[in-house]
Structure formats: structure tokens, C-alpha cells
Amino acid sequence: MFKGTEPTKYIALAYLTGILPIKKQKTQSALNNFDEYTMLNAGRFSPFVGFTEKEVEKLCNHYERDFNEIKHWYDGYILGEQHIYNPKAVVSAMLDGTLQSYWSQTSTFESIRPFINMDFDGLKTEIIRMISGDEVKVKTTTFQNDMITIKNKDDVFMLLIHLGYLAYDQRKQTAFIPNEEIRGEFVNAVEENKWNELYDFENKSNELLEATLDLECDIVAEKIEQIHSEYTSVIEYNNENSLSSVLAIAYLSAMQYYFKPVREMPAGRGFADFVFIPKPQYLNSYPALVVELKWNKNVSTALAQIKERKYPQPLMEYTGDILLVGINYDKKNKAHECEIEQYEI
């Protein structure tokens, strides 16, 4: 109906809406005379895809809700320069005053569960990484904009992005789970499918978290070294960025008690590599964690940097304990070191 130049004689404007982009025929769109605005690039329509951060702040002020808690639960979609929130979830949280997942009222995992269980190389591992708070690279070119022609893990991730289950950072070309609401939905879906990969990893992660909270530095170093070895390819093992990714997935079990870790958090006179903040119901049981990573340095310099640059400063109003965690990787010896201290205000 819209293909080619002939229809332009009769149609002044056509406005189509839908969840998936226009179906591709080979590498081209079936309709090539439309401007498309999608979850990959919403362009000038970015502020209208959902609630913007300013709109959510105003709602929080009006309904007397804690903006930071709303942000942890429902923020995460990045469209251009905009942080976009799910309107249904925000409105429900404002009216009910309860921080929980409202996702099941607007969508369901049933339709996408077959896709996350597909036997594509690396698919389950990268979903576990995202559940842990990490981001994964995604190639956007092969997806045919349908739910039938799924050929690899990138196509699965692209489908999840367009359906709203994953967010996409156009600048870094990475996919990630946008917020606590959807992370919980992923955890439920994975646990119902009884992934052996997740159970094995959760056991290692639980041991790591317990050792961290008990200030067992040698055990923490040992567990991180084990996870680094098992979940990083030989090519990437000595890559400095791999240590950051390893730490993100290593503390998978922490996600039950903590919000998604904040990376490069502005703190004091610099940026803390990782900050783990407990969920409100666990404030009295679990300390905040400020983590600094070092590469071919002395592990003591990590803790020294945390103190010198006053990284715990943004947590001064935090009512619980704070642990300072320094981790160093020696590339030559492929050895990990750890030091942990309780922060004294």
C-alpha cells in the first residue's frame, strides 16, 4: 500500500504504531519510505516513549514518594539523553505506595520464555551477566524484526529490547536489564526453567558474598579468581575490563539483598568503581559495599584511594555499616588479592 512513489500522490501522512519495527526483507525494510522510531533510537520522540526523569521527580514530590527508591525500581531505559520510566509501574507505585513489580499487569514472560531458553552459544551466560548488573555487547544488524527468524543470541537480545525486557545504550551498543522490576522478572523466569548454569553460579556467588561480609579476604580473592577463570575466555582474561565484568557477575547472589550495583558512582573527589546499596528491608542486616579495583598494583592502594578520595561520602546519610573492599589483579602471576575494612565514620 505504501511501497514506492505512487502512493505519495494520494497519502499526505501515514502514522503506524507497533511494538516491533517494520519487517525486513533480506537487509532492507519492507517499507522504505517511512521514518522509524524504535527502542534503539527514538530520536525526537524519546521524551514521549514513557515518563521522563523530571516528570517522575514531580510525581514523587506530589505523592511524597522517595525518588531514589522509585529510580532504583523503575528507571533504566536510555533513549538519547533521556532516562525513561515505565508509566504503568510509576503510576501504580505512586497510588499504591508499594515498591514491587507491576510488570505482570502489562506483559508476561510466557511469550519470550522459549527465546531465552534457546541453545545459542553464550546466551544463558550473558543473561546471567545481565541479571548480575552487567552489560553485554549486541549486534543490531541481523535481526529481521519478527519473532520467527531468530538465528543467534543477538537476535534474541534485539527482540527483548523491542519488547521492553532489555534496555539499550546506543552509545556503547550494549544491552542490559534496566531496573529492579524487570530484573526480578528475569530471575523468576530463569528459576522456573531450572537453569543448571544459574544454580552452579549462585552457589559460588553465595560463598563469595558470605566471605566478603565476614571480611575473609583470602577466600574472597580465591572465589573471584575461580570465577574469573571459569567465566572469562582466554583471549579476554588479561583484559583490564574483564575484571570489572567479573566483579559484576561474581556478586550475583547480592542482588537478592542489594540494588543493582552502581558503577563509576560520583563519590567524594572521584568515582567509585562499584557501590552496592542494600534494599530498604535489608538496611539493618547488610552493609553497603564500596569496591575499588586495581590492575597490576598493590591491593593496599585500592583501600587508600577509597579513603583519600572520600568515596564513602555520598553514603554518609546511610544508617547502616559500610565495608570498603579493595581488589587487585596481578597480570604476570594471574593472581588476585583482596583487602576489606569496615568504614569508620
Summarize, please.
The protein is an alpha+beta fold. The protein has helices at 53-63, 67-74, 87-96, 113-116, 123-131, 153-163, 180-192, 196-213, 217-231, 240-250, 299-308; strands at 24-25, 28-29, 51-52, 77-79, 82-85, 136-137, 167-169, 174-176, 262-267, 270-276, 288-295, 322-330, 335-342.
Task: Pick out its properties.
five-stranded mixed sheet, alpha+beta, Trna Endonuclease, Chain: A, domain 1, single chain, globular, 345 residues
Extended strand count? 13
The N- and C-terminal alpha carbons lie at a distance of 69 Å
Envelope shape: globular
Q: Output mean pLDDT.
A: 82
- Sheet with most strands: strand arrangement: 9-10-11-12-13
- Determine Rg (CA atoms, Å): 22 Å
CATH third-level topology of one domain: Trna Endonuclease, Chain: A, domain 1
Which structural class should the secondary elements be placed in?
alpha+beta
Order of helices and strands: EEEHHEEHHHEHEEHHHHEEEHEE
Largest sheet: 5 strands, mixed
Report the CATH C-level class of one domain: Alpha Beta
